[in-house]
Amino acid sequence: MSKFVYSFGGGKADGKAQMKELLGGKGANLAEMANLGIPVPAGFTITTEVCTHYYKHQKKYPAELEKLVKQAVLKMERIMGAKFGDASSPLLVSVRSGARSSMPGMMETVLNVGLTSKTIKGLIQKTKNERFTYDAYRRLIMMYSDVVMEKAVGVEPKEGKGIRVQLEHEMAAMKREKGYSQDTDLTAEDLKKLVEIFKVKVQDILGKPFPDDPIKQLWGGIGAVFQSWNGKRAISYRRIEGIPDDWGTAVNVQAMVFGNMGDTSATGVAFTRNPATGENKFYGEWLVNAQGEDVVAGIRTPAPLNEATKNEQNKHMASLEKAMPKTYRELDKIRTNLEKHYRDMLDIEFTIQEGRLWMLQCRVGKRTGTAALNMAMDMVKEKLITEKDAVMRLSPNQMDELLHPIIDPSAEVKTSPIAKGLPAGPGGASGQIVFSANDAVEWARQGKRVLLVREETNPEDVEGMRAAQGILTGRGGMTSHAALVARGWGKCCIVGCSALDINVREKIMKVDGKEYREGDHLTLNGSKGYVYAGELAMISASENPRFVQFMKYVDKHRTLKVRTNADTPDDAKKALDFGAQGIGLFRTEHMFYGKNSEAPLFCLRKMIVSNTEEERRRALEELFPYVKRDIKATLEVMNGLPVTIRLLDPPLHEFVPQEKEKRAELAASLGIGPEELQKRADSLHETNPMMGHRGVRLGVTYPEITEMQVRAILESTAELIQEGKRVDPEIMVPVVSEVKELDDQRLLVERVHKEVCEKYGVKAIKYMYGTMIEIPRAALTAGKIAETAEFFSYGTNDLTQMGFGFSRDDIGGFVPAYVEKKILPDDPFQILDQEGIGELIQIGIERGRKTRPDLKVGICGEHGGEPSSVGFCHRVGMNYVSCSPYRVPIARLAAAQAAIRDLKGKGNAKKNVKRKK
Length: 917
Ligand code: PEP
Ligand code: MG
What we know:
Elements: E1 5-9, E2 12-13, H1 20-35, E3 43-46, H2 48-56, H3 65-80, E4 83-84, E5 90-91, E6 93-99, E7 109-113, H4 117-127, H5 130-151, H6 163-178, H7 188-206, H8 214-228, H9 232-241, E8 249-255, E9 266-271, E10 283-288, H10 292-296, E11 303-304, H11 320-323, H12 325-342, E12 346-353, E13 356-364, H13 369-381, H14 387-393, H15 396-402, E14 405-407, H16 409-412, E15 419-420, E16 422-425, E17 428-434, H17 437-445, E18 450-454, H18 462-467, E19 470-473, H19 481-489, E20 492-495, E21 501-503, E22 508-511, E23 514-517, E24 521-525, E25 530-533, E26 538-540, H20 545-557, E27 561-565, H21 569-577, E28 583-587, H22 598-608, H23 613-638, E29 642-646, H24 660-670, H25 674-683, H26 696-701, H27 703-722, E30 728-733, H28 739-760, E31 768-773, H29 776-780, H30 782-788, E32 791-794, H31 796-804, H32 815-820, H33 837-851, E33 856-859, H34 867-875, E34 880-883, H35 888-904
Parallel strand pairs: 4-5, 17-18, 18-19, 19-20, 27-28, 27-34, 28-29, 29-30, 30-31, 31-32, 32-33, 33-34
Antiparallel strand pairs: 1-2, 1-3, 3-8, 6-7, 6-8, 9-10, 9-12, 10-11, 12-13, 14-26, 15-25, 16-20, 17-24, 21-22, 22-23, 24-25
The structure holds phosphoenolpyruvate and magnesium ion.
């Protein structure tokens, strides 16, 4: 019989932390805590394999499951000294989801399962608390009818007509009638009446009675959790986070302990260190006399765990440290033990039942990029982790967040916040406010920058939260779902901003009597929790010394070099600041776009519409000083680091002017009439320019274009050397598919080299001659190409275009649908298709290095800055990746992580890959 059910509790467990794939994160960590002797209510985990089986077999369980669950219930009963469904000493259970990778709030939970007309009496006797018992019962009916009887069976009620909302209305009506303001004002008698009203409502609305059988309730809960794996918000979250659909969730059934049994009971959520800043302080929130859902749902604003972490919003509230000092000390000890054991920051949930502490959950906590960096560096100092561990602790996306903007402090001091809330997600964000997740998605689709403003946090808003620049809520604490999710994404987020009077229906928010409507601009400082009216200036996060130290670790452990794609000396400088080790792609044609491009562009245009070689040479002569100036300045900035200069690539007709005046000016400079110019321009027209007269084909047909560029490169080099500077140029030929193209161009290069040497009176000028590999035929014939090319640089933009046969300029019409339908896992122009295009790359490297063992290989397509693609480049033995300046630190980190994984043998490293220095 397969082991589908794993028990835990009473100081031991069947599972352990390493079994996340099978037990889900929650189940595996509950088992681990039980094994560590930490007080965990007993229970059992139904494995993720059951979930996969369930979906593979028309939502049926494996035959033996029922028996296994029965045995596990017996075990749990023995440990807890109570019996499920028993009239005198009943045991209640919670039924919760638990995926391999945490999906906070995205799936369902049912609490208090096992309460029936029979067990109610026993619970009252046992707890001597009638009010508590009926309160637990009304919570069960509310949750169960919503999750199991409505959502899990696919009932989709109209807005405001869901069973839960209707039951909430009943409760509110009773409170109103009795003149109560709080739920806690309801007496035992009131609740007794209320549950009867609830039962009638459930029968009326859902057409079925509320089940009075504990076993039926249990299986209902289990089924609902499995069902919620395929609920809308879970699917959305998985898509955003890249969690595979076939992982499935586990189900955890665990004995209930109650934080709502009076003033010696409480519940809380905590982080072993501050998840927003990384500060080494125990950080959390708690509520006296409450159940866990009250904290995470953001319904009541919770109190701080201790004195040291109080803030503006909660400084008047009693901390757990003061209110229950002994229990706090016990919790703090568990915190230390858990951190020592897991060697990481953990996110924990606890309940105190009548003074007794129980741990309900622990998992590695989500954190901001800043916190990840600070914690990693602290933990190295504390000798909790190694430098290599530290490198693995910051994800490349978090690195991106660290490089992201914050509000310009000089602008911030000049103004005051209109409101203050809890700093739940870091950095700054400004944008137009919207009040619904759908609007956020829609406005963002139209290219607007929006801030999503909500009354309270709701996991159903996940798509809108993603689309927004920042999130602002009126209620909720630091551990509310929105805060957790935003932090996981490194998104600017402020929660619990109680000064806001938000009217979602009217799309208006009032603060201090002032109105802000949909579309108005606000700015958020998510690191402090401050909200500002209007748009404040942003700046990039300043260089932090810990970041510099962290990057030293990164560089120590990586073997792959990181270069940049830069076309101007300014970009080159920026990239050097970010740690670039050379330029992997200098696109010559970019000097004809944007700033200061008028003069060189005019010469280029003259060259393009020239009719004879003589005319063209004259135009090229005029163009030469501009090309040389840019190349020389860039080579100089790079100060001896390699600079790959690519010969002119794009189809020339792109540069023919469209405006009448420009055309007239051009015609005049060539001494021709407008009709003649039109004729020449027309003759340049191509049906498929991307596969037309571009790249090396230009150099083959007009050798003088290549000559001019090579002369500019070599003269710049000669002059810089004579000025005592260091230079390392690499001449790169684009769009090559056949070695003879390269041979043809090499003759020109060699001739120009000889001429330049004579001009400067030197014997030789050092340069490398290589090619881009961006056409499948080039990858396949790489063995021959390497006879001439001294280096390869993979142009994966074109290689993806030509490998898939997808026009890179026209993918908008179909690639999103391919991703949506899961025909492709991602847009292959963003994330390298390792299976197909990657195979071409590997073939090219293998064949190229067979011919020329010291062949230098890099990548300069957009993928060179994408973390998973960088990992691939490491594994196939490239020497370097090249990416835009801002992505250089991300690529450095991704390269270091790939190297560390490789060492640990975790990566799927290709055997025998040799990297040539
Ligand atoms: C490429 O094709 O990957 C490349 C870097 O060149 P470009 O994007 O300029 O075509
Ligand atoms: Mg290309």
